[in-house]
């Protein structure tokens, strides 16, 4: 069944189902790169008003305690990723965590317009793509730099964090509003 675009009461631009699915897929890719970064940036976006989760099952993500917990865990993951004994992201429990957290972040993006389940599915698919793609890209880049993993790991951190916030800025129409006012 085709549903018309939903216009958020505080936004000027309609939010389509396809846009939510795309953004959920992309935030899932972020979870594939850094599993806790995806829910952390969704929580931050909800707290600062880029994503409206008020009155939804995901409203708990806008709580300051949730934001702090996800942020601390995400920073811990960024540090842990640099340690030599950290298992590969493709190891079963780590892969599963990325899928779950990508699904959570994606589902939260779909909560307000009531597209939770398709956004959850897109987040899961994105997490699988991000996990496998990130693993192979990182391996190739490390090999191309003569085995220097740290610079590539730091680059991946930047991509995950900046990408996550860019996705959420698009969700909150922050970038669109900025561009529209810049053109005038």
Defining traits:
184 residues, mainly alpha, 7 helices, 0% strand
In short:
The protein has 184 residues and is mainly α.
Question: How would you describe this structure to a colleague?
Answer:
With 184 residues, the protein is mainly α. The chain has one domain (17-178). Helix content is 68%, strand content 0%. The chain has 7 helices and no strands. The longest helix is centred in the C-terminal third of the chain and has 29 residues, at 116-144. It is globular and about 50 Å long. It starts with 16 loop residues before the first helix and ends with a helix. It comes from Mycolicibacterium paratuberculosis (strain ATCC BAA-968 / K-10) (Mycobacterium paratuberculosis). Keywords: Membrane, Transmembrane, Transmembrane helix. This is DUF4126 domain-containing protein.
Please outline the helices and strands.
Layout: H1 17-33, H2 37-48, H3 64-80, H4 92-109, H5 116-144, H6 149-171, H7 174-183
Helical fraction? 55-70%
Overall body shape: globular
Major sheet: size, sense and barrel closure?
A: none
> What portion of residues belong to β-strands?
under 5%
User: Which secondary-structure class do the elements indicate?
Assistant: mainly alpha
Instruction: Find the count of extended strands (DSSP E, 2+ residues).
Output: 0
